[in-house]
Amino acid sequence: MRNWLIILGFTLMPGLSMAQENSVKLDSVKIDHDDKPSLQRGAKLFVNYCLSCHSAAYMRYNRMAKDLDIPKRLVEQYMMFTADKIGGLMKSNMPPEEAKRAFGTVPPDLTLIARSRTPEWIYTYLRSFYRDKTSPSGWNNIVFPQVAMPFILYRLQGVQSAVFDKDKTTGAKRFDKYELVQKGAMTPQEYAVAMRDLTNYLAYMAEPAKIVRHHIGRYAMVFLGLLLVLVVLLKHEYWRDVK
Question: How far is CA 120 from CA 12, 23, 203, in A?
Fold first, then answer.
């Protein structure tokens, strides 16, 4: 009986951890793989701010260029910081040993992050960093407490602090709101749009075939509509002389 209780405890621990992490209210975000300008802006943010530490080892530069209608010469000139050929994979140049020494852990590959998490989680996470002097990196995150990642996007958003209050029932510390301490290059509204673009791109990267499926699906619906007309006409032809 004791062994079963131990096994049950270890089984429930990840669920309890996720429940605590998911206690934060996530913001909704519009994911639209047909919005090519948004995806292009998101790809630009990804290669400039994320790819230095994180890899996207299951995505190739030429696939991104084709799907997002980005000319190959622009990808080669402005977006290929970690590969020599446009057919190469989007890998980070940071060695895992150096990453672990700098951050305490190896930054995860982001190709499938929008599937392992959710777009809503990513969008909220990217807007939930705040200054925390007690953290090793100087930053913390409401959605992912004690995250090892330093806030690389602070020059865009600015520096914000988190205000906490106490729950009247339990007395536990509870997040209340953010306060902008130092302005960034973007207004809060502009930064929210930029993070929507980045989240949109990450969602595309997790399932790039969705663009192709949507494109084929439109033709399939048109074909089925025409076929329905022909089937109805054929049915009337067969039953025309039946009284």
Answer: 24, 13, 10
DSSP calls for 148-185:
S---TTHHHHEEEEEEEEE-TTT--EEEEEEEEEEE-S
Angle, in degrees to the nearest 10, between helices 36-45 and 188-206: 100
Distance CA 94, CA 51 (A): 9
Helices (H), 32-187: 36-45, 61-67, 72-78, 96-103, 113-116, 119-126, 154-157
Residue matched to tokens 């290059």:
185
Domains, the chain, ordered by start: 25-207 (1.10.760.10)
Q: Tell me the pLDDT of the chain (243 aa) as tens digits.
A: 555 544 445 444 444 444 444 478 899 999 999 999 999 999 999 999 999 899 999 999 999 999 999 999 999 999 998 788 999 999 998 888 988 888 888 999 999 999 999 999 999 999 999 999 999 899 999 999 999 999 999 999 999 999 998 877 777 788 889 999 999 999 999 999 999 999 999 999 999 988 777 778 888 898 899 989 988 888 888 888 775
